[in-house]
Amino acid sequence: MKIAYAALIGILAVGATAPVLARGDGYNRSQEFVKRFKENQKKIHGKEKQAAQVESQKNGSTKKDTAQDKSTANEG
Mean of the pLDDT values across residues 35-57? Predict the structure, then answer.
């Protein structure tokens, strides 16, 4: 039982220290990559683009509504 207990503690110790030791091995590069990726995604899919899409959708539906109103006015 003591051997199993010691093995369990050893496995937990390695599991807890692995992320700390991994920080030195490419951690900064991967963090920089994630940061640049998120910035690029904000540029591509940012709020300005979403606002422009919403505005164009509003304008598109307004043009359709206006055309339907004109055809309805001509019928009556």
Answer: 79
Name which residue leads in pLDDT, 52 or 45.
45
Greater confidence (15 vs 59) lies with: 15
Residues in the chain: 76
The mean pLDDT value for 21-45 works out to 83
Task: State in Å, rounded, how far the first CA of the chain is from the last one.
Answer: 93
3-state secondary structure of 39: helix
Q: Residue with structure tokens 């690029």? A: 40
Tell me the two tokens of residue 32. 């920089």
DSSP-derived letter for residue 24 is T
> Half-sphere exposure of 55 toward its Cβ, with a 13 Å CA cutoff?
6
Helix (H, G, I), strand (E, B) or coil at 25: coil
